[in-house]
Amino acid sequence: MAHIQLKGISKTFGNHAALKDLDLEIADGEFFVLLGQTGAGKTTTLRLVAGLEKPTAGQIFIDGQDVGDWGAAERDVALVLQQYSLYLRYTVRENLEFPLKAPIRKTSPDEIKAQVDRVAKTLRIEHLLDRKVDRLSGGEMQRVSIGRAIVRRPRVFLMDEPLSALDAKLREALRTRTEEPAGQSGGNLPVRDPRSGRGHGNGRQDRRAQ
């Protein structure tokens, strides 16, 4: 469970200003949707919260703590990108288990199995658990990528168009199913959603910004 606050955030890449003086506050447990045109800085905002980028100026707070010097692992943030982030030579089960096996988590084998089974059932990939990832379709890979993010119940859950590679029927089904476990985890859901209407912004949302 986490309260997120961005104060005066600016981020430049060379001569390009991706973000300038951004102030944003997201309440604990809030489902927040971030809208904007391509190049507006939505993905950059998510990467800054996740700890994958450092702001050029400004501060980021999680639960009132300045996390500017914290790495991604210390922030306990899960980020699901449109591009797959998987170990192709591992099975689906091994990919889902991987975040739970970090020494810092001290998760028991029984708990790992229970959490993997729960996520596999939620995302309808139970029949794929023993299959190597490089033998999956694009839609199946995306479901596994989402599963890797939600399997460990992060404090903050960020999604960057993770459903855009799926067909419309499956996208709608998974939209509901990913909202449900993420909400149960108590994390926030700042969601990147393109203005075309694709992605994850048309389902449940407590608040949106553009």
List keywords for this structure.
Rossmann fold; five-stranded parallel β-sheet; 6 helices; 9 strands; four-stranded antiparallel β-sheet; 210 residues; alpha/beta
Folded structure, characterized:
- The chain is of the alpha/beta class.
- It has one domain (4-209): Rossmann fold, CATH 3.40.50.
- Helices cover 30% and strands 24% of the residues.
- It has six helices and nine strands.
- The strands form two sheets. The protein has a five-stranded parallel β-sheet, with helices on both faces.
- A hairpin with a 2-residue loop joins strand 1 and strand 2.
- The chain is globular and about 45 Å long.
- It starts with a strand and ends with a strand.
The coarse overall form would be globular
Number of domains: 1
Q: How many E-type strands?
A: 9
Strand content: 15-25%
> Termini, distance in Å?
24 Å
Strand order in space, largest sheet: 6-7-8-3-9
Mean pLDDT: 81
Which CATH class applies here? Answer: Alpha Beta
CATH superfamily: P-loop containing nucleotide triphosphate hydrolases
The run of helices and strands is EEEHEEHEHHHEHEE
Quickly count the helices.
6
Helix content: 25-40%
Sheet with the most strands? 5 strands, parallel
